[in-house]
Amino acid sequence: MTAHDWNGRLVPFPADRTAAYRASGEWSELPTTARLHESALRHAERTALVTAEAIYTYRELDERTDRIAAGLIRLGLRRLDPVIFQVTNRATTVLAWYGVLKAGLIPVATLAQHRMHEIGHISKKVGAVAHLVEAGLSFDLVGFAREVSKNHPSLRYVLSIEEREGQAGVYRIEDLGADIDLTEARALVEATEAEADPEDIAVFQLSGGTTGVPKLIPRIHAEYWNNGLFYANSFGWDEQTRVAHMIPVIHNAGISCALHAAHAVGAALVLATPDPESAFELMARSEVTDVLIGHGHYQAARSAGFDPVLRTLRRTVLSGAKVPAELFHKLDDGHTRWAGQLFGMSEGMFIVTPQDAPAAARATTVGRPIAPSDEIRILDPSSEQELPIGAVGELCCRGPYTIPGYFDAPEHNANAFTSDGFFRTGDLAALHEFDGCCYVAIEGRIKDLINRGGEKVNAEEIELLLLRHPDIAAAAVVAMPDERLGEKACAFLVSKSGAELTMAEVQEHLEGLGVAKFKWPERLVWVPELPRTNVFKIDKKSLRADIVKRLEAESLEGAQS
């Protein structure tokens, strides 16, 4: 069967690279769920998943998700129907993820914090048929899903986790397929898998968004499970490994570095929440051996609360910002505990520290790519000229699991990829040589993104939304440093009337537009006018310097008082 090309909106891999990846074994001919089933048969009675509320063996995980898939098929969902996910780190989230995949459906990995501004656009873009939400959060996502469906004719199903029984028009994942015989459920899953093509879209992930709302990233079956397998193999994971994960599991990092990576090799995934206190307690109790820590948790990992985890911890991967030396040395004692780094993106490329990397490379670079066919170039940001080792330029990449194009975005793709198919990441990087091998060091970003604890906030998007307020004449949003999250958004604003809006008034404006709270500015600076460069562009460099000076002055004043 020929892969569905979504009426030309899906950019295919070039034929020569497709043939090479298949010949090398870096692509699989099996759908993602068949790979899970293989692993479940090999490791049936081993622990697959540990959360605060439940533990599943591989057999239990495989059987329960077969039944969920069968339940979804019985509901009337059809192969390749997109399903929006708005859920947090729970055992039922994992069950829903695999159940949706086994039904031949396509998870669309949004965030629980997203609102109408983001979900409305994404739903229409992919033609979402179902919306999976988590009940019991501070925001009523079940009610929100019903509201979204009013203006989206394709959205016919509201699915839920943690919802009370008996809610009209809501199908609980906990109930789906519970009454279906296991043999029948497995037959339905296998029949669905038989229709799959390796180049079918498996999952839609989201970009951080370089302009406007996030771009859709289509990941295909041929490469997606293997992306996790390459990652697991980079660190020597096996069935004895117990991997802890704290950041949102539905992120690409959560799927590729935790869920799929662990289950590709028979490891146990210890799925915690972002709350450090409860997460560290679960990790210590579960005797984890490996953990990925994003820079939003660097401060917490430096505290005494993380110390009980060190008892069994063997490997720590740090991601998202330059690693403080104090933290690195706490997690890497040179004997029983090892620390390295990760740089990755939903578009594909993962760069990690090899286990045998010299200490200097581990501490100062993010490492090397994980797949044999991964390719990296450091290019002049304004051209396709390749720069020499040591020079800082734009990190560009292509490979078996790096997308050849965003979904339904031809104009953006024209600028986001080089003429020979390398993805222009927008990140500044340099290659450094250690013991005859090149390692990648990340030096900053070209893209105007704010990295708030791992969540990417597009400055231009928020500026345009702020300008929709009748009392705001001009707006520039920049990153300001934050010890806990790495960066937060600071908005420099010019008033139309001379009166300055309060933070509460700005928040009310953004809430009325349905903007996710993590994107809201967390500081307002009112100025008579925005500074300009000699070509009359807003001088964001000076604004970033301005907010740093303000924060430093406030810190000094606080210390003296």
From TrEMBL:
Domain AMP-binding enzyme C-terminal per the UniProt entry, residue ranges: 461-537
Gene name of the record: trsA
EC number of the protein: 6.3.2.-
UniProt-recorded name of the protein: Triostin synthetase I
Keyword Ligase annotated: yes
InterPro entries xrefs: AMP-bd_C, AMP-bd_C_sf, AMP-binding_CS, AMP-dep_synth/lig_dom, ANL_N_sf
Top EC category: ligase
Single GO molecular function: ligase activity
AMP-dependent synthetase/ligase domain ranges (all copies): 37-407
Homology family: Belongs to the ATP-dependent AMP-binding enzyme family.
Keyword terms of this UniProt record: Ligase
